[in-house]
Every structure is written in structure tokens, then in C-alpha cells.
């Protein structure tokens, strides 16, 4: 059974960088089948897409975050990572990692959905 | 960006009664293949979100058949035939036509 577990600092100073890690068990981040994603839920708000990464190096980012966010994979540790620069209070949120799985062939490509999620890690940006 | 607008934002429900949530998109979510690039997710209290519906109307594995998705073009609906107490939480639509975006969420609670 695939499990994802986020980890991070909990508290980050404003203007500093945030680094989060998601450890995957029961699957491999180096698999070419799946994409690996990050989503967050800011305090009092709904879900917000951050982006995804694939073992091929393909990435996709939320345009509003892409100048500050970098996603990466560590195949030796079977982890995905998120780094966000210059954080502010608006980045206070619960951060989730999730797996994008191909569920249906749709013409020449496959349709992917977020079928496995981590439990989330809370990040507070405050001095 | 494609903007998704959900309504209502809060939905008190009675167990055993039907319930529906609307999701309207600022652009069509239907590809030339006819597929609808829309998912529905439910975040139950204290849990991570879970996939309910993909491609507009396909139930994910293990999802009860009281949940159904419908719609076309820019207007979509998630319907619960007979609400159960375990269905409370926040429901989100998410478009996959372009870089993914979520609706604001609809909080479903028991009356």
C-alpha cells in the first residue's frame, strides 16, 4: 500500500526559505507511471495547487507561485521535495504531497488524478 | 487561469435526503475527445482530501455509488443521492484542462 508522509520545520521566519520533504513508501518516485504533486490549504481557505514533478524532469507550477517554488525528486531517498523562497504570512498553510495516477487513456494521453495523499504538514510563517 | 466557482459554499443536509453542489468554470472543460477535465474531491474533518470523481463523471475506486458527477461545457454538478453522516466535509471541484485550479470548496454539514 502506497503511503506518503510530509515533513518540515513547522515554523519559518518571514522572508526565509521553506523546505518540505515527502517520503514515499510502497512505490518509487523514479517510476515513469506517476507524477508527484504538492497542494496546500492556507488557513481559512480552500485547496491551492502548487505543482507537480515527474521522474523525466517534467514539471508544472502554479503561475502565481512559480517564481518562488522549486520541486525536485531524490530517487536515492525515494522522496519529493518542495522549496519555496521569500515566504510571507500568506504562505501559512497545511501542505500536502500527493500522487498523480493515470486512470484512463484519453486519446493519445492518459488522464491523471490525485489518488493518494499524505496526511499533510502544517507550516506557520511568523517571526 | 481557469476560475472555478462553487455553490453553495455551505450546505446543511439531512441524512437520507439528496444533495447537490454546483461547479461553474470560466472556460469549457471539455476537450475535443469529448472528455471532461474535472475532478471532485472530499476533505473529511481531520483527513486528507480523497478523490471522488474523475473525468467529470467517473467514480474513483471504492467510492459509493450514491455519489455521481454530471455536466458539460462549463457547468458541472456533484450529486449525493442519499446523504449519510459520513459524507460531511468540504467538497472541491478541480479542473485539469490547464494548470490545475480548485473551486473555493463547499462545506457540507448535517442539519
Note down, in words, how this protein is organized:
- The complex is a heterodimer of chains A (about 130) and B (about 110).
- Chain A is mainly beta and about 130 residues long.
- In chain A, about 0% of the residues lie in helices and about 55% in strands.
- The N and C termini of chain A lie far apart (about 40 Å).
- The relative contact order of chain A is 0.30.
- The mean pLDDT of chain A is about 95.
- Chain B is built from no helices and 11 strands.
- Chain B has strands at about 5, 10-15, 20-25, 40-45, 50-55, 60, 65-70, 75-80, 90-95, 100, 105-110.
- The chains are: A mainly beta (about 130), B mainly beta (about 110).
Question: Nutshell version of this structure?
Answer:
Chain A is mainly beta and 127 residues long.
Estimated structural class of chain B: mainly beta
The number of helical segments of chain A is: 0
Oligomer state of the chains in this structure: heterodimer
Mean pLDDT of chain A equals 97
Report the strand count of chain B.
11
Major beta sheet of chain A, specifics? 7 strands, mixed
What string, H for helix and E for strand, traces the elements of chain A in order?
A: EEEEEEEEEEE
The separation of the N and C termini of chain B measures 35 Å
* Silhouette of chain A: globular
Low-confidence sequence ranges of chain B = none
What is the strand tally of chain A? Answer: 11
Mean pLDDT score of chain B, rounded? 97
Q: Which two chains share the most extensive interface?
A: A-B, 24 and 28 residues
H/E element order of chain B: EEEEEEEEEEE
Radius of gyration of chain A: 14 Å
In whole angstroms, how far apart are the ends of chain A? 39 Å
Strand % of chain B is: over 45%
Helix content of chain B: under 10%
Structural class of chain A: mainly beta
How many helices of chain B does DSSP assign? 0
